[in-house]
Design brief:
heterodimer; A: 289 residues; alpha/beta; Rossmann fold; B: mainly alpha; globular
């Protein structure tokens, strides 16, 4: 299965039409890396997200888009159980990671997060040296590494940051620019060798040039990782994503609570060029609300 | 109408400086408050230094700092302060031995592990401990810890007083100081760092000890320094429970008189102003001040050296 994808799919990605072809050419040959089955997410009694169904395939970038409050970040955070850190948060339905229910009774959230890493909206490097930021994950996970120096170099290289920081590894990560800090956070995530990288609006605090660098980086990383990105920037979704999920918020008639729902999910080209749902079309074309 | 006014030239804007008496009064007020604080501190320092200078004109500094016999009221008076320092060192060290682990443990628990509700109950309860008058702690130390626990229950070989009971109870007294300020410092660490750590597969314990604790280090050191300063300067507990005999303390079960204990015992108002005995009080007070100052300087250095600012 690996061979099929590596030879036929990954190098072929030159335009959006290709994406459609390869996506439909391999229907359900493999188990999705992440699969949401009737997922609803609650904060205490408040239903933040209702009945979401979609799947993320290996070595693809899936973008979650939609207006503020539509629950896309909530869904993203449920993929590595970051919602566990919020008191009262609860997931119904099933989220599976390569077939394993990540909310199963025997499942350790720590193990889930080891394999499903996350990059946050605002760069959040630790107030430690650049080196220690990268080494932190492998250290806390007790990873057996032959040479931490090599691992740090590899992670920084893969995050396209090595050349900029190789002479100041012992300096504080907080001295880096915003874009560098975000690439450091990506490098930090890569260092624990996850399978999936979740990105929660990773470029919203960055300038356009830094944003482009991160997008280029995502294209590189998709060869080895499965990426799910939440973004407010529709051009960004169109540029980077293979699949796009469009969410919106629906107000409850009686309580007025707004609940996020998945409107449409499919190939990015389809979502942006010929969406099936009127709401998607309105949002994409800027006629939203 | 709007079309008419739009065509006429608007009047020249009045940008002249205007008097703001409220601002001036506020600035003067704050300046006064700041100035008064400094003036009072300087005043106290001068009040300490002047009698101390007189004292050191009669007793050489060397003899004071390194002399091992403290007997200021005896006929053959001797002013070696070492015995007082040993007692202060013992009580302070014992207090910190109990207070730092317990205080920091409580702070880490409250900040990183406790549910919101638990924290809301626990923190005020802990702070009540800080409100108990030290004289109560002192009697608790001498009547219960020393007399009942150490002598009756544990059958320890100790007299009516010991630096252990005084230090232990003093440790209990400063737990809330250390716990509360450290907790504030750790709670102030941005949640984004905890999330970043969790997202890498770190456990709560790892996040607390390897990310939050170092990031809050400057506040934690400040908490410990405040605890040390309180322990060094604490008077009532040691005056009641540590003992009144100035002698070099060699072990935790021995009694001894601390610097503050000496001042409390000697400063009963019967020493004549300007007498050597009177000046002695100020010399010991100045030494206390210098020690506390040194602790503060060292802690500032530690913070600069090790902190991970976020």
């Amino acid at each position: 299965m690996n061979d099929i994808r590596n030879t036929s799919v990954a190098p072929e990605r030159t335009g959006s039409t290709n994406t459609i072809v390869h996506a439909s050419a391999r229907p359900s040959l493999e188990v999705p890396v992440l699969d949401c089955d009737s997922v609803s997410i609650f904060y205490d009694d408040f239903r933040a997200v209702h009945d979401v169904n979609f799947a993320c395939l290996r070595n693809e970038i899936t973008a979650l888009i939609g207006p503020s409050g539509c629950g896309k970040s909530t869904v993203l955070r449920s993929f590595n159980r970051m919602n566990d850190l919020i008191e009262g948060a609860r997931v119904e339905g099933a989220i599976t990671y390569r077939g394993e229910d990540i909310y199963g009774p025997e499942v350790d959230a720590i193990e889930v997060r080891r394999r499903i890493g996350m990059v946050f909206q605002k760069p959040n490097p630790f107030p430690k040296s650049i080196y220690d930021n990268i080494a932190y994950g492998p250290r806390v996970n007790g990873m057996k590494v032959d040479s931490m120096d090599d691992l740090v170099e590899e992670a920084l290289t893969r995050a396209a940051l090595w050349d900029e920081v190789k002479d100041k590894l012992k300096q504080s990560a907080l001295g880096l620019s915003g874009g560098q800090q975000q690439r450091l956070c990506i490098a930090r995530t890569i260092a624990v060798q996850p399978e999936v990288i979740l990105m929660d609006e990773p470029c919203s605090a960055l300038d356009p040039i830094a944003t482009l660098r991160i997008e280029d980086l995502m294209q590189e990383l998709r060869n080895d990782y499965t990426i799910v990105i939440v973004t407010h920037n529709m051009q960004q979704a169109a540029r980077v994503a293979d699949k796009t999920a469009f969410f919106t918020a629906e107000a409850n008639d009686t309580t007025g609570d707004r609940t996020g729902v998945l409107v449409e999910f499919g190939d990015t080209a389809t979502i942006f060029e010929s969406p099936h749902d009127k709401r998607t079309e309105d949002y994409i074309s800027g006629r939203f609300g | 109408m709007t079309s008419v006014t739009a065509r006429t030239t608007p009047p020249t804007p009045d940008l002249r400086r205007r008097p703001r008496p409220g601002d001036i009064a506020a600035r003067m007020g704050f300046r006064f408050a700041a100035g008064l604080t400094i003036a009072i501190t300087l005043g106290i320092l001068i009040a300490l230094i002047v009698p101390s200078v007189e004292f050191f004109s009669e007793v050489p500094v060397n003899e004071f700092l390194f002399g091992t016999r403290w007997a200021p009221r005896f006929a053959d008076a001797s002013f070696g302060v070492v015995p007082l320092i040993t007692a202060t060192a013992w009580t302070t060290a014992i207090a910190l031995f109990f207070a730092i682990p317990l205080g920091l443990g409580a702070a880490i628990f409250m900040s990183e592990f406790a549910h919101q509700r638990t924290r809301r109950i626990l923190k005020p309860v802990l702070e009540v401990l800080a409100g108990i008058p030290t004289v109560v702690y002192g009697y608790f130390a001498v009547q219960f810890i020393q007399a009942v626990v150490f002598r009756d229950w544990l059958k320890l070989e100790t007299g009516s007083f010991s630096v252990l009971s005084a230090g232990f109870v003093m440790g209990i007294m400063i737990i809330p100081t250390i716990a509360s300020i450290s907790e504030d410092a750790m709670s102030a660490v941005p949640n984004s760092l905890r999330q970043g750590s969790a997202a890498l597969g770190a456990t709560r314990r790892q996040t607390a000890l390897k990310v939050v604790f170092p990031a809050a280090l400057s506040g934690i050191i400040a908490a410990i320094v405040l605890g040390v300063s309180r322990a060094v300067g604490e008077t009532m507990i040691v005056a009641l429970a540590a003992g009144q005999q100035a002698r070099i303390v060699g072990g935790p079960l021995e009694a001894g008189q601390t610097m503050t204990g000496f001042i409390a015992n000697a400063a009963l108002g019967d020493s004549r102003v300007g007498s050597l005995e009177y000046n002695t009080l100020f010399a010991v007070g100045l030494l206390l001040f210098v020690i506390t100052l040194l602790i503060n300087l060292v802690s500032i250095w530690i913070v600069r050296r090790f902190r991970e600012a976020y």
